[in-house]
Design a protein that fits this description.
74% helix, DNA-binding, homodimer
Chain lengths: 129, 129
DNA sequence: TATTGACTTAGAGTAAACTTTAAGGATTAA
DNA sequence: TTAATCCTTAAAGTTTACTCTAAGTCAATA
């Protein structure tokens, strides 16, 4: 059992954000202590892990909420969930490919400017003599 | 020479956004026709290509503006520009690695749910008989 | 017991990057 | 010439995902 602060540290999400996620239906059924404090389980942490994974790869909170709700709706939503994840996976692959393409461009630029810089510094050297 | 609409089509940025970028100092010195219409050159398109590359890999417009301003300031900013690009390149590499890690996780999830779905559908089949 | 830390609701504020609107006038291509 | 495109300024609106505040109460830890 983890307090909201512990979970905040583990996930990197603020306590505010954790409560916000719960209110929005991203994370459901968080247990409470007799006094009403949230007590997160390892399962909750796992769920949060998936939420962060989807979020950090470009899925909107709205879509994540949809996915979570489907999960709670039971087996008959398995097909839709698989489709949803598959599609997201395709997007991720496309995104990685795009990033790779951009990386090549930036690498080229870095080399280009580095060479220019080298030439410039050499010129400075000569002029200083 | 391209009109704002042509550039909009080529870059995928709206005419509004192109004017907005110009106002913000992201793209400077766009030529004008005698009547005052913007006339983009191939160089402008190239500059826009770099802007989109940086933007789509997570650089903020503010940082991009800074880079563009440095470029206009001449050779003595070469070092800073190289540093800026190098750092961005490191971020990109880290981001791609992170995405790859998340992709593994999502792939695992897809397979896991696919298997569950297969089992579920088999069960449905049996029950239908 | 004293001091943190947690709880609630409800709403306001923030940041980025656009996007839209409005109003009126000028230019360009067919 | 006429329809389509472009220009300007200035400001308001949009979206997402938080982030913060307030006010008052309650719980947990040393």
């Amino acid at each position: 059992m983890y307090s909201i602060q512990e979970v905040s540290k583990k996930t990197g999400l603020s306590a505010h954000t954790l409560r916000f996620y719960e209110k929005e239906g991203l994370l459901c059924h968080v247990e409470r202590s007799p006094g009403g404090f949230r007590q997160y389980t390892d399962e909750d942490l796992e769920a949060l892990g998936l939420i962060c994974c989807l979020k950090n790869t470009g899925m909107s909170l709205q879509e994540i909420t949809r996915f979570v709700q489907l999960t709670h709706a039971g087996e008959q939503t398995l097909k839709e969930r698989v489709e949803l994840l598959r599609e997201h996976r395709e997007n991720m692959i496309a995104r990685i490919a795009e990033m790779q393409k951009y990386l090549d461009k930036v690498t080229w630029k870095v080399n280009f400017f580095s060479e220019k810089l080298r030439a410039y510094e050499e010129k400075q050297q000569r002029e200083a003599q």
